[in-house]
């Protein structure tokens, strides 16, 4: 995959892209002003949102490659590594980036809930593909942030810059909601695969061997990041993946309870519970009866 570039500070990233550092913790970068470079994998020590205006091939993220198309917004949290496959040729970058350090958010409302913007932990293949109208909104937001960075610093500067970053991220949340809707057929297929995954899991001996299926395991089996998977299932069903899994567990448990040759403890272990009392507590919460009460009533 070639060498790894590392950018721990925004000033380093600005210098690499021939961009003036207006603020050490925030920057809006126009890639078209940067010199051509060889493609490589890159480590980012800060929040990064990139809008690419050129089709530049396959993007590496972890051990996988994805088609990184024109008109795509990519979100990276601090400490993530992403990059483009090195073809041996010079690459002329084109597009824009908003980069901001977590230190800039300290003491702000955005800093307290930045984790709510779960798309910073999505995989690259779950990037946001925006329409031309959405792109204009993105560009307007970036222009406002850049304009404020070019003003003389005063007591209002940080508040206004953070507010505009938050406005931008809120628009991105709206655009992702639109993408969930417009890709509804694809997502329904994922929901069906999730249901089949759980059915196959509980009809096998996996629960006894490795326990209850976790959300992270289900996401990995469906080739999705846990956050994207969680957001998708919530939007499709109104339930979190954990709630969906628990409902499946209860459905399977109800069938097994009718087998009077099995004790509740045996059923709990067969379902993957490490402690039978955890099974009984969940069953009571979901059904309103303990497993034994449910068996006797029915």
Automatic annotation (TrEMBL):
Top-level taxon of origin: Bacteria
The name this protein goes by in its record: AraC family transcriptional regulator
SUPFAM superfamilies with a match to the protein in the record: Homeodomain-like
Keywords: DNA-binding, Transcription, Transcription regulation
Sequence ranges assigned to domain HTH araC/xylS-type in this UniProt record: 192-297
Pfam name, any one: HTH_18
GO MF annotation terms: DNA-binding transcription factor activity; sequence-specific DNA binding
């Amino acid at each position: 995959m070639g060498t790894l570039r590392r950018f721990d500070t925004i000033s380093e990233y600005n210098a690499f892209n021939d961009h003036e550092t207006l603020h050490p913790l925030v920057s809006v970068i126009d890639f078209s002003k940067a010199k051509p470079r060889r493609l490589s994998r890159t480590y980012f020590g800060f929040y990064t949102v990139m809008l690419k205006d050129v089709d530049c091939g396959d993007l590496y993220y972890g051990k996988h490659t994805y088609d990184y198309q024109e008109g795509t917004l990519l979100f990276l949290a601090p400490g993530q590594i992403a990059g483009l496959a090195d073809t041996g040729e010079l690459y002329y970058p084109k597009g824009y980036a908003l980069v901001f350090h977590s230190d800039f958010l300290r003491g702000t409302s955005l800093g307290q809930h930045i984790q709510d913007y779960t798309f910073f932990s999505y995989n690259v293949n779950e990037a946001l593909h925006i329409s031309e109208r959405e792109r204009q909104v993105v560009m307007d937001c970036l222009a406002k942030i850049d304009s404020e960075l070019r003003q003389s610093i005063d007591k209002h500067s940080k508040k206004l810059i953070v507010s505009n970053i938050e406005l931008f991220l809120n628009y991105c949340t709206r655009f992702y909601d639109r993408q969930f809707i417009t890709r509804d057929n694809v997502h329904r297929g994922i929901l069906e695969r999730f249901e089949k995954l759980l059915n196959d899991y509980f009809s096998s001996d996996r629960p006894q061997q490795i326990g209850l299926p976790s959300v992270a395991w289900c996401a990995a089996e469906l080739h999705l990041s846990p956050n994207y998977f969680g957001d998708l299932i919530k939007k499709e069903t109104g339930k979190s993946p954990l709630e969906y899994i628990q409902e499946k567990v209860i459905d399977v448990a109800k069938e097994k309870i009718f087998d009077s040759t099995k004790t509740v403890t045996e059923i709990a272990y067969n379902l993957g519970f490490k402690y039978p009392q955890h099974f009984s507590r969940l069953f009571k919460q979901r059904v309103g009866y303990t497993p034994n009460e449910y068996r006797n009533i029915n």
